[in-house]
Specification:
Blueprint (H helix, E strand, L loop, with lengths): L1 H25 L10 H7 L10 E4 L5 E3 L2 E8 L2 E9 L3 E8 L3 E11 L7 E7 L11 E3 L3 E3 L4 E2 L5 E2 L3 E3 L4 E4 L12 E4 L2 E11 L2 E9 L7 H7 L11 E5 L5 E2 L6 E2 L19 E4 L8 E8 L3 E10 L8 E7 L11 E3 L6 E4 L8 E4 L2 E10 L4 H25 L11 H4 L3 H23 L6 H16 L4 H23 L3 E9 L12 H14 L7 E2 L8 E6 L3 H19 L2 E6 L4 H6 L6 E6 L2 H6 L13 H5 L11 E2 L2 E2 L2 E13 H6 L8 H13 L4 E2 L7 H7 L7 H7 L17 H15 L9 H7 L4 E5 L2 H8 L7 E4 L4 E2 L5 E2 L4 E8 L6 H11 L2 H15 L10 H6 L4 H11 L11 H18 L3 H23 L5
Parallel strand pairs: 30-31, 30-32, 36-37
Antiparallel strand pairs: 1-16, 2-5, 3-4, 4-16, 5-15, 6-13, 6-14, 6-16, 7-8, 7-15, 9-12, 10-11, 17-28, 18-21, 19-20, 20-28, 21-27, 22-25, 22-26, 22-28, 23-24, 23-27, 29-31, 32-41, 33-34, 35-37, 35-38, 35-41, 39-40
Helix pairs in contact: 4-6, 4-8, 6-7, 7-8, 10-22, 16-25, 17-18, 18-26, 25-26
Length: 951
């Protein structure tokens, strides 16, 4: 019988391999569908670039769908303008191309009021996306500092206010998100064509589209020959403009920063914050630019020097493109290198001993520096193409071997994956070539190129011995993850600027660094001042009766935004003064010591009820206008902060589950998004046939974490319980209902995912989603922030959707889910409770939550997109139309779960019951019933313990 079982198992494995082999034969990862730009260029590499310019007015469109359009005779100084007033839909034009060849395209546009992000469109030629990079093209808005650098009462500098400065611009379609990093090429044959723009994000006005090829830039030598060198300037002219005082910029994140490492930085103070530089890590993405205005005293030739520091990308240079009055003066100005250095240095634009001279007329001029990949663009684009091909190959391999192969089994990979050895050697050779080219461009051997060689060596070894591939699969996956991170890191081009000099050719430039003696003296002074300065309080510190003390968690930047909002809005409107302190922990200790604040803006989900049960918080529902304030949030948003009929916190943030999916992989496998859990079972089974996985949320927490974590979105059980019609508590909130049939069914469904379908418990969703190993997963919607900023290689290839649910008898799919978040509270010992309530009303209002969210994203980028609990503010944040519709669709089903004293024990007990089923094979019903009794005993004990506290 045992022998028969082994034979049967072998036959099953062999049959499965045959099925996978047949599936692989019918599939072609990456070879069909939309090509990459590199593949597109290979097809048209010999095409001419005709010197024709075709201009067509936007109002003369021939077709449109779902686009909110309006033709106007005049708009902002331009005639015959097409207003695309809301994002979404598409517009199409017919155009006649007089000559076959490669062309660039440009858009003359004016940004309309929106959510403050760049305008995004997709480009289609003759009804098709020509290549992946055309799926999303960004056109920047223009921003301007409106107030100059301000000061607080402690004499520290405050960031200037920034707002959009909308204007007409003519900008090429440029790949700013990828590695091509220059004007996108489009191939047209002679004759009639259609051009379609699909709106992805933000409204805008269109004047015209231009199809053209730009004139070739002259070399520096030709530039000098063209201009009259006899017209020189006087000696010793040095004009300085401080970097922290820009004229315009492409992004509000490019705000003034500060450096205190070198006394030569201008301006400088030993203990006070002086915003004396600009850029740093914020100025790292290709396409981001900053411009400055500078006044020249007389006509003539000038050299340009920049006091800069690039201490972020070790061992490599970063690149900038120079514009003078909106134009690149000569070819060499397209790629200016700023080498790595931990110290400030003076970068004179030009060759080592010979600066480039630029002719400027007397008067004002604009100098603009744009982040670019420079000479690295081509090599990085090639590495990205190779990385994409390797990810496809990895998925083909694990479709046969799985992610944890049997090392004692022969999978016959060379036979099952046609051309495996040839493909491995091809990618290995590509990486070797790319490493060599990278070293040449970097000007040094080894370094960052060694990683490419290490991956190339692994591929060669795999090609020599394909039987060793299963044993290398884990290391291969790690290398692919490392390759993606390598690409993302290489794309970053950070630079910090202190000031810019425009000087006559013979002028002597100042030293960029201070002397050793000056540095020593200032370091000693800074040490002394560290005992004097108060770095906890943010901004002014007030005294008196009508002052409230507010504690803020998070970082100093977030606290400074709150401080600015208070100064600009709350105090002028109410006359109430606020002291803001940046505090990370210790609230309970502060309350016990009698030194707590009046208001805390960010407390974890379970804290309000735990503190309220001990009589430490103010019941907010007692305030007369509470019912009006309550309408700002989702219907169940206040449930976790409600105790014994009182409400002890207002929600600040709210996070809930969404389904993340890889569009490209599901399309290749012909898999539709699951709408119900029955659909999900089928999707799991189909993906597992390919040895791909589905990720479901699970986060194990220890006893201390459980106290603050509450019953939010920590795992899938609360979601399933709600969808199955169950509840955690009875009406009295004194015992759980986890022994009811609905709860048992939900618990069994949850554990079945891991016991019957072998889904992974512990995994890195971000990396597995990137490689495609886990093309479908459920995760908090804030995961979007990470994927949008740190996974550029899969841009446009993934999306979000509501989670699966349970189909009800009326046909509706119940997608109910729990949530997590933070709240703001008022302490009972506060002497100014009415003032505190005014502050909470102000803080949770539509306008302030919107402004805080926008300023936070302007400060830190998409990675800091704010998950506000205010419904109106959420709608105003910069999600595009499709994302917003999906998020709002899911938010309708969010059902917050009550928190009661002792609910931490429920979190721990459910996790223990789950572990007993998954790891020990205990019956789900028995396991849940056992822990339900223990939970009810603990809730009763906690109720008795807290009965002595007065609310």
């Amino acid at each position: 019988m045992n022998r028969f079982s082994k034979i049967s198992k072998t036959l099953k494995i062999t049959f499965a391999c045959i099925i996978v082999f047949l599936l692989l034969k019918t599939m072609s990862f990456g070879s069909e569908g939309i090509s990459t730009l590199q593949e597109y260029l290979k097809k048209v590499e010999n095409a001419k670039k005709p010197q024709n310019t075709i201009v067509f007015k936007a109002i003369n469109y021939t077709n449109s769908e779902n686009a909110f359009l309006k033709k106007v005779a005049e708009f902002k100084g331009q005639n015959d303008v097409l207003l695309w007033e809301k994002e979404g839909g598409w517009v199409e034009w017919k155009v006649h191309i007089p000559e076959t060849g490669l062309y660039n395209m440009a858009l003359q546009y004016y940004p309309l009021p929106g959510k403050g992000l760049g305008i995004e469109v997709a480009v289609m030629i003759d009804g098709k996306i020509p290549y992946k990079e055309a799926q999303k093209v960004t056109f920047y808005r223009v921003w301007k500092d409106t107030t100059g650098i301000r000061k607080d009462k402690k004499d520290n500098d405050l960031r200037p206010k920034c707002q959009e400065d909308p204007r007409w611009q003519k900008v090429d379609f440029i790949d700013t998100e990828g590695f091509y990093n220059k004007s996108l090429p489009f191939y047209f044959t002679q004759g009639e064509h259609t051009i379609r723009l699909v709106s992805i994000r933000e409204p805008f006005a269109l004047k015209q589209l231009i199809i053209y090829n730009p004139e070739k830039l002259p070399s520096y030598a030709d530039y000098i020959k063209k201009n009259d060198m006899t017209n020189k300037v006087s000696k010793d002219i040095v004009i300085k403009v401080q970097g922290e005082h820009p004229y315009l910029k492409s992004d509000p994140i490019l705000y003034p920063t500060y450096d205190r490492t070198d006394p030569a930085t201008e301006p400088y103070h030993v203990s006070k914050i002086r915003l004396n530089t600009i850029g740093q890590w914020n100025w790292r993405y290709p396409g981001m630019w900053i411009s400055w205005k500078i006044e020249v005293p007389e006509d003539g030739y000038y050299k340009i020097a920049i006091k800069a520091r690039q201490n972020f990308v070790r061992g490599l240079s970063v690149h900038r493109k120079l514009y003078i009055d909106g134009k690149v003066p000569f070819k060499e100005a397209e790629d200016i290198e700023f080498p790595y250095s931990i110290r400030w240095y003076m970068k004179t634009i030009g060759q080592k001993d010979k600066p480039y001279l630029v002719y400027l007329t007397k008067g004002l001029h604009e100098i603009k520096l744009e982040a670019t990949l420079g000479s690295f663009a081509e090599i990085l684009s090639r590495v990205e193409n190779t990385a994409r091909g390797l990810n496809d190959l990895y998925r083909k391999i694990i479709m046969i071997t799985g992610t944890s192969p049997d090392l004692y089994r022969d999978y016959f990979l060379e036979e099952q994956i046609p051309g495996l050895v040839k493909t491995l050697l091809k990618f290995s050779n590509e990486l070797e070539e790319e490493a060599t080219l990278f070293e040449k461009l970097a000007g040094q051997k080894g370094g960052e190129a060694e990683f490419l060689r290490r991956v190339a060596l692994q591929l060669r070894d795999m090609a020599k011995d394909t039987d060793s591939i299963p044993g290398r699969i884990s290391n291969f996956r790690d290398n692919l993850s490392g390759l993606s991170s390598w690409l993302a890191y290489r794309r970053d081009q950070p630079l910090e600027i202190d000031y810019i000099l425009v000087a006559s050719p013979d002028a002597k430039l100042p030293s960029p660094t201070a002397s050793m003696a000056s540095k020593f003296i200032n370091s000693f002074k800074a040490f002394i001042y560290s005992f004097i300065e108060d770095y906890t309080n943010i901004g002014e510190v007030y005294e008196g009766q009508k002052v409230i003390k507010v504690w803020v968690g998070g970082g100093r930047d977030q606290a400074q935004i709150i401080r600015d909002l208070i100064n600009d809005s709350f105090t002028p409107q109410t006359g109430i003064k606020v002291n803001v302190s940046l505090v990370q922990a210790g609230l309970i200790e502060a309350i016990l010591a009698g030194k707590g604040p009046d208001v805390v803006l960010t407390v974890s989900r379970a804290q309000p009820v735990n503190l309220a049960a001990r009589g430490a918080l103010v019941d907010l529902s007692k305030f007369k206008d509470f019912e009006q304030v309550k309408k700002r949030f989702a219907p169940t948003a206040l449930v976790p902060y409600t105790y014994n009929g009182g409400v002890y916190g207002l929600p600040v943030t709210q996070d809930f589950y969404m389904m993340f999916y890889r569009k490209d992989i599901l399309e290749e496998l012909n898999i539709e998004l699951p709408q119900t859990w029955d659909d999900m079972y089928r999707v799991i089974a189909k993906l597992q046939r390919y040895n791909l996985q589905v990720g479901l949320p699970y986060q194990r927490i220890d006893a201390l974490e459980a106290i603050d974590a509450g019953l939010g979105a920590r795992n899938l059980f609360p979601t399933l319980l709600l969808q199955f019609g169950g509840n955690f508590y009875d009406k009295t909130k004194t015992r759980t209902l986890l022994d009811r049939p609905e709860a048992v069914a939900a618990f069994k469904t949850w554990t079945d995912f891991y016991t019957k379908y072998n889904l992974p418990l512990i995994y890195d969703f971000y990396n597995r989603f990137r490689t495609g190993e886990m093309p479908l997963g459920i995760a908090p919607y804030t995961t979007y922030n990470l994927l949008a900023t740190a996974a550029p290689e899969i841009r446009n290839e993934w999306g979000i959707a509501p989670i699966p649910g349970v189909r009800k008898p009326n046909g509706e799919i119940d997608r109910s889910t729990g949530a997590s978040g933070t709240a703001c509270i008022i302490l009972k010992k506060s002497k100014n409770k009415e003032a505190c309530w005014e502050f909470l009303k102000w803080w949770t209002s539509d306008e302030i939550q919107t402004q805080f969210g926008k300023e936070l994203e302007m400060l830190m980028g998409t990675a800091a997109r704010y998950n506000t609990a205010n419904l109106t503010a959420f709608q105003r944040l910069p999600w595009n139309k499709e994302e917003m519709e999906n998020l709002e669709s899911q938010w309708k089903y969010v059902k917050e779960i009550e928190e009661v004293p002792g609910s931490y024990y429920i979190t721990r007990s459910i996790d223990s019951a789950f572990s007993a089923v998954v790891y020990q094979g205990i019956n789900p019903r028995e396991s849940l019933w056992k822990y339900t009794k223990e939970i009810n005993d603990e809730l009763e004990r906690k109720r008795i313990e807290l009965s002595s506290y007065k609310q």
